[in-house]
Amino acid sequence: MKSKKHLLSFVVSGLLLITATAWVSSSKDNLTANFAKPAPKAPKVQRLLYVATPGVRNYLGYGGHGIQVFDMDNNHKFVKYIKTTGFSKSGKPSNVKGVDVSISLNCIYISTLEAVQCVDITTEKVLWEKQYEGGVDRISVSPDGKIIYMPSLEKEFWTVVDAKTGDVIKKIVTNSGSHNTIYGPDGNYVYLAGLKSNMLNVADTKTHTVTKQVGPFGADIRPFTINGSQTLVYVNVNGLLGFEIGDLVTGKFLHRVVVEGWNIGEVKRHGCPSHGIGMTPDEKEIWLCDGANYRLHVFDNTVMPPVQKTTIALKDTPGWITFSLDGKYAYPSTGDVIDVKTRKIVASLEDQNHNDVQSEKMVEIHFVNGKAVAAGDQFGIGQVKKASKN
């Protein structure tokens, strides 16, 4: 009886030893396999800044004619020049009025006084160029990259266009001196500002009709920006060194914010003391152009109305301001590259011949393995999608 028990105990012990050995061996193999096959690295993102010129009127001395491309992760060094079209009837390069990107169509669009050109991002070839009734001002492309809203050149209407073909879909008549245009981040609304109106028109993108107005503001609207949740609009207006704020939901005027400690003075261009306003992507600050004093004024936007914080000196008169997608850099039209956190100028945009590049029309594009995967915006739009509690 004892020998049977001993035999049974010996068999059970053997089975346990085999099982444990197999488990240890299997675990060891798994560990070896895991060490042998490290997790694949995320593909490197290349961030480039595309600057369309002549982007300050038709001044060829600020970068010539074409697209100048800069490496945002290498001290904004010049990368390449892309040849573009966009000539006036006299054969001279026409003023660039706007720039925007369709990631889905792999195209960058440049509007000039007379026309819009569609350039393939990969091949850098002009796919089409079309002139439009009334000329073209600062365009805006839908988030899905399929539709372009084109303001006529300070005339009565906007033209809605198919981004792939350039074919006209519809005309929206506002009689407001069409000028600046922002396609909302949610794709449902487009914000239409005219040089001859103190009301901001809001168009529904399903019907391409104006369904709301915001204002009235203190004077005719110049550049403007919006927050990511599309509840607030911050506008420059004629005659004001500062900005005003409107409620995009109720349509009401909210606040007028005046720059303190600086005189309005004479400005080189645009005839407007503050021509250019942008919001940091985190929406904590408003950056405002001061054309007479060659300055940017920074405001705390965590309180309402925003409060003036500091001022940054620039090398020339600013007429526009936007930001990198990550919020690290601010890009005034002067070609200065500013570190947002330190307020210091860390680089200056220069072409291959070390000539100064300035433009009010620039956009950031991200690439992975040579393919465009994301783009910024030209308006310094906020990136916080939830409504503010202010």
How do the strands and helices of this protein lay out in sequence?
Blueprint: H1 2-36, E1 45-53, E2 66-71, E3 77-82, E4 96-102, E5 107-112, E6 115-120, E7 126-131, E8 140-141, E9 147-151, E10 157-162, E11 168-173, E12 178-183, E13 189-194, E14 200-204, E15 209-214, E16 221-226, E17 232-237, E18 242-247, E19 253-258, E20 277-279, E21 285-290, E22 295-300, E23 307-313, E24 321-323, E25 329-332, E26 336-339, E27 345-348, E28 362-368, E29 371-375
Antiparallel strand pairs: 1-2, 1-28, 2-3, 4-5, 5-6, 6-7, 8-9, 9-10, 10-11, 12-13, 13-14, 14-15, 16-17, 17-18, 18-19, 20-21, 21-22, 22-23, 24-25, 25-26, 26-27, 28-29
